[in-house]
Amino acid sequence: MTVNVIGAGLAGCEAAWSTASYGINVNLYEMKPEKYTPAHKYQGFAELICSNSLKAARLESAAGLLKAEMEMLGSLTVPCAKENAVEAGGALAVNREKFSDSVTEKIKNHPKIKIINKEVTELPEGINIIATGPLTSGKMAEIIKNLCGEGLSFYDAAAPIVTYESLDKDKIFFASRYDRGDADYINCPMNKEEYLAFYNELLKAERVQLKDFETHPFSVYEGCMPIEVLASRGEDTMRFGPLKPVGITDRRTGKRPYAVVQLRKENREGTMFNLVGFQTNLKFGEQKRVFSMITGLENAEFIRYGVMHRNTFINSPALLNSDFSMRENPNIYFAGQITGTEGYMESAAGGIIAGTAAARKILGLEPLKLPPDTMTGALSAYVSDPYNNGKFQPMGANMGILPDIGIRIKDKKQRYGVYAERAVNSLRKELERIEYENNR
After folding, report:
1. Among 322, 345, 344, 346, which Cα is nearest to 333's?
2. Distances in Å between the alpha carbon of 386 and those of 13, 326, 368?
3. Nearest 5°: phi and psi at 437?
4. Beta-carbon contacts of residue 229 (< 8 Å; ≥ 6 apart)
5. Are 318 and 381 a contacting pair, CB within 8 Å?
6. Which residues touch 385 (CB under 8 Å, ≥6 apart)?
7. How far is CA 2 from the centre of its chain?
8. What band does 54 get if pLDDT is binned at 50, 70 and 90?
């Protein structure tokens, strides 16, 4: 049996490599050089479009842990990145063209991978892994839309996410408006002086400029206006919108605050919260600077910043299993950024998961069960958890999606080191279990 992988980006290359490593024949479809997206220019595979950085290299970081797990799972792209690294402090950054050339050469020389350079306009027969990325071509987007129904988005409009652990508990409080129902929201009350200081800095903050190929998301998300645009309409506009204080009593003063920012639970465990109504086009550094002025967020750890940009992705929690196969059609897998795993290495990791799952299913082998306390396991759980259905937004690797370690460690580096050690040990045990089952 042959597996068809559509798209030779990071995820597609990892999916093809993982599948072929099990001795399964792979058809890897890539429309370059016949056709390019508006952002792609280089003929090689695994082309890096934005930054040439694959984020932190140290194990006690989310990005470093993810890469370590990927290597344990037989990654193609991580070793290629290390071979073509450039100096970047504590990050793993690469020479883009050399990295692409290295990945391309290894893919082309694999005896089980056949490269087909053409745009896919209908799904081939058999098992398919769709890894077409956030700039999926029009015809492929229609195929995906037919597969996913309404569960396809063309823009990523998301508010920042912070860890609950990093919030100042002496300044914030849980409450619902008028104390109706459960107290599900965290409230960050602001007096007039605090609000005006925040408002003025928000107006001055530097914004991201959209790329030429990006249509402005306001036309798609009418209810997702960037918070800085809302603020520009008048000093009190936010106070009549997402920062309205009605029905809220400040626990510190016993009175209604001048304005209030609300945070809503992002995951089932309540380790992450998003800033309600804070979709934004501000640059990441500006988000950290300005949003840290909000009461209780002075030392907040931002594990995802707000974004509004072109980003085709599916509503994975309603559609996918944790191995990235479709619930309604298990012979179709999705991999990469289109699933909502945001970031270069996150996309590549999705390719490993999907390719490994497809190959093991074909061979009748025991499925690989990624432990939830690993970064790869936590990412796959996040995009497949029905709890996120209806409010799903893409997520990158971060320590906030891992289960709590159950002990209080104030030093962040030390705490993350414990998370990383636990994850590596858990994944090693799972791989040993799989090897044992295969050799029985």
Report:
1. 322
2. 28, 13, 21
3. -65, -40
4. 281
5. no
6. 268, 317
7. 29
8. very high
Q: Going by C-beta distance under 8 Å and a sequence separation of 6 or more, which residues neighbour residue 300?
A: 162, 163, 166, 167, 291, 292
Domain covering 161-304, topology: Elongation Factor Tu (Ef-tu); domain 3 (2.40.30)
pLDDT at 149 over 90: no
**pLDDT computed for residue 222 by the predictor:** 42
Give CA angle at 376 (66, 14), nearest 5°. Answer: 80
Sign, CA dihedral 42-71-343-140, equals positive
Q: Is the dihedral of CA 212, 215, 218, 221 positive or negative?
A: negative
For residue range 209-254, list pLDDT tens digits in order. 765 544 444 443 444 578 998 999 999 999 998 999 999 999 888 9
Whether 2-151+315-439 and 161-304 share one fold: the answer is no
Dihedral (CA of 158, 164, 166, 169) sign: positive
Which of 51-55, 112-116, 245-249, 396-400 is predicted most confidently?
A: 112-116
For the full predicted model, state whether its pTM sits above 0.90. no
Confidence bin at 311 (pLDDT 50/70/90):
low
Residue 52 pLDDT: 83
pLDDT number for residue 88: 79
Task: From residue 122, give the alpha-carbon distance in Å to each of 6, 90, 145, 413.
Answer: 11, 43, 12, 48
More confident residue, 128 or 311: 128
**pLDDT reported for residue 42:** 82
Residue ranges per structural domain of the chain: 2-151+315-439, 161-304
Q: What is the CATH number of domain 2-151+315-439?
A: 3.50.50.60
**Cα–Cα distances in angstroms (integers) from residue 365 to residues 64, 199, 292, 374, 429, in the given order:** 29, 58, 49, 22, 17
